[in-house]
Amino acid sequence: MIETSNGKIRRVNESEILPEEFITFSSGCIEMFLWKIPRLSEHFIYSNDDMIPMVPMNQTMFFNEFDIPIIQFETISNPLNTLYDIHTLNNNMCINKTFKNVGDFSRSLRTLHTLRPLTKTICDRCFKEHEDFIYKSLYKRRSYNNFNMDLFCLYGLKNNLIINKKLTYSFKFICMSSKQLDELNRLIHNNSYDLICFNDDIENLDVYNKVIQKLNIIIKNALEGKRGTRTIPKQHNILYNYPNI
After folding, report:
1. pLDDT digits over 171-215, tens only?
2. Using the 8-state DSSP alphabet, how is residue 167 labeled?
3. For residues 147 and 31, what is the distance between their CA atoms, to the nearest angstrom?
4. Would you kindly state where each structural domain of the chain is located, as residue ranges?
5. Fewer CB atoms inside 10 Å of the end CB: C or N, the chain?
6. Could you give the angle at the alpha carbon of 117 between the alpha carbons of 41 and 108, nearest 5°?
7. Global pTM?
8. Which helix (H) or strand (E) holds 70?
9. Are 30 and 212 in contact (CB under 8 A)?
10. SS percent in the chain: helix, strand, coil, step 5
11. Chain segment 111-143, per-residue pLDDT in tens
12. How far apart are CA 162 and CA 104, in angstroms?
């Protein structure tokens, strides 16, 4: 249960942003309309539920002095291993208008699986320019035809509205498994990274439930302060004090 009484968290129902015919829990639909969340700031940050910030985050980690989003992209050489890879290919073909040249994977870009800063202006412009393709990609379940949030990031990059730059914060990606729990616990206890992504790739439900139980204990201990500390430079302004976010 999400605690919303402190006023810092607001729950948004899918029906508030999705067209009625596409109301679903599928991220392939929801990500295309996240920028339409009521009262969302012009500058916002997209995060998945597997992200664990380990330190107070500040605006200079995500936006430059001109409020332009900073995102690190990577090139993938063989983007057909997973459904996520196929969505990456879809994003690139849409933005680069290369649907007829399906075999060209050499310039397929995607963001790192981390926090992604964006603006509503970028999303609005991208949606309007590619609206027909976006609506054709929508299904109530995940599909090979889907796009994902990187569609907006690639659009911003191509139109010089986003800067492709190495992350200014330390980041660790871990695939969820029983073996990796000890590694995650060590990283959290030692406060080794600014941000940790503990990604779910477990197909067996029983194993998943056991891992989640152990993960809850690790997170609970972290929230109670049972981990190491690192000094944060005083000049950093924590993210939730940033007036434009």
Report:
1. 988 887 767 888 888 888 887 889 988 877 666 777 778 888 888
2. -
3. 9
4. 14-53+64-164
5. N
6. 140
7. 0.82
8. strand 70-71
9. no
10. 35, 15, 50
11. 998 999 999 999 999 999 999 999 999 988 888
12. 24
